[in-house]
Automatic annotation (TrEMBL), chains A, B:
<protein>
    <submittedName>
        <fullName>Lrp/AsnC family transcriptional regulator</fullName>
    </submittedName>
</protein>
<keyword id="KW-0238">DNA-binding</keyword>
<dbReference type="InterPro" id="IPR036390">
    <property type="entry name" value="WH_DNA-bd_sf"/>
</dbReference>
<dbReference type="InterPro" id="IPR019887">
    <property type="entry name" value="Tscrpt_reg_AsnC/Lrp_C"/>
</dbReference>
<dbReference type="Pfam" id="PF01037">
    <property type="entry name" value="AsnC_trans_reg"/>
</dbReference>
<keyword id="KW-0805">Transcription regulation</keyword>
<feature type="domain" description="HTH asnC-type">
    <location>
        <begin position="9"/>
        <end position="70"/>
    </location>
</feature>
<dbReference type="InterPro" id="IPR019888">
    <property type="entry name" value="Tscrpt_reg_AsnC-like"/>
</dbReference>
<keyword id="KW-0804">Transcription</keyword>
<dbReference type="InterPro" id="IPR011008">
    <property type="entry name" value="Dimeric_a/b-barrel"/>
</dbReference>
<dbReference type="InterPro" id="IPR011991">
    <property type="entry name" value="ArsR-like_HTH"/>
</dbReference>
<dbReference type="InterPro" id="IPR000485">
    <property type="entry name" value="AsnC-type_HTH_dom"/>
</dbReference>
<dbReference type="Pfam" id="PF13412">
    <property type="entry name" value="HTH_24"/>
</dbReference>
<dbReference type="InterPro" id="IPR036388">
    <property type="entry name" value="WH-like_DNA-bd_sf"/>
</dbReference>
Length: 158, 158
DNA sequence: AATGAAACCTATGAACC
DNA sequence: GGTTCATAGGTTTCATT
């Protein structure tokens, strides 16, 4: 029987998440031994964490430059008006543009922050002109090149 | 013998990456059958992609709210001066702050964009005051709440 | 580089404590 | 929850091409 969605995470769950956050591809066997759990218990708990949505998914991270997209940028997008359906539709549109990695919908002067990786400056301009400012609701954009992107310490850091 | 770092990706590599990007936890067997490759060939190519650094790593993604950090923000950080060692040291410091998910070092008015997930507004203020503006080189910050964050179409989208 | 088959290892589920 | 065990399934190696 799965735990109710609102159950708090116990110490074991947090320990599992802490290890999985650093080593997502550890085998269940190694994970169980690391935490002194039975393999079946460990597998059961990890499955439960996935079913409860606490672990959303597993992803690989590509080296953007190695696959031909060495230039990254954050494109700030400001809107002319902020009616609900307009904002949502633009959010959808931005997220579906090739080479877009993430789209942040934020509160403030900028409405969206669009993180992209592209092959060169021309491709960056093309995204801004053809996929962003092309929307009438977009009042303006401001592009910042990304020198470097690092992972932070994360949620479970002390 | 691993391929030299500069070798271009062939069609098969791109097909593998396209599948893995969507389903990182697919088994090697299923992946091989999907692309009509022998299992051994498929395993070998994926291993090579990892060794070449094209696949950087595998990560789980947590549901931030479920683990107690329902509030996300982007904190823009502006510096007073931009001497190399200072900037690098601050980059290191920001990336090691608990609850920081990502740090972008960017070119523009803002020098860093710090993406955080926190338990509440108080925790957000504490990060800004105790971990960011505490550095003398930081001239100012501007915090934007994140309403929603979406994945983009990604690098391999057509 | 790719293949198929064997050998090896891991994950899974049942029965029980 | 934990333990044990049996089975199914996945991964790795290697001789071959």
């Amino acid at each position: 029987m799965p735990k109710p969605p609102g159950s708090p995470l116990d110490e074991t769950d947090l320990a599992l998440l802490a290890v999985l956050t650093r080593e997502a591809d550890i085998t269940n066997k190694a994970l169980a031994h690391r935490l002194n759990l039975a393999e079946s218990t460990c597998a059961h708990r990890v499955r439960a964490l996935r079913e409860r949505g606490i672990i959303r998914d597993t992803r690989i991270r590509l080296d953007e430059a190695s696959v031909g997209y060495p230039l990254q940028a954050i494109i700030k997008v400001r809107l002319a008006n902020h009616t609900g359906p307009t904002v949502t539709a633009l959010f959808d549109a931005l997220a579906s543009v090739p080479r877009v990695l993430q789209v942040f919908h934020v509160a403030g002067v900028d409405d969206f922050l669009v993180h992209v990786a592209v092959e060169d400056a021309t491709a960056l301009r093309d995204i801004v002109l053809e996929h962003i400012t092309v929307h009438p609701v977009v009042r303006g954009t401001e592009t910042q090149l990304v020198f470097e992107l690092r992972d932070g310490a994360g949620l479970l850091a002390r």
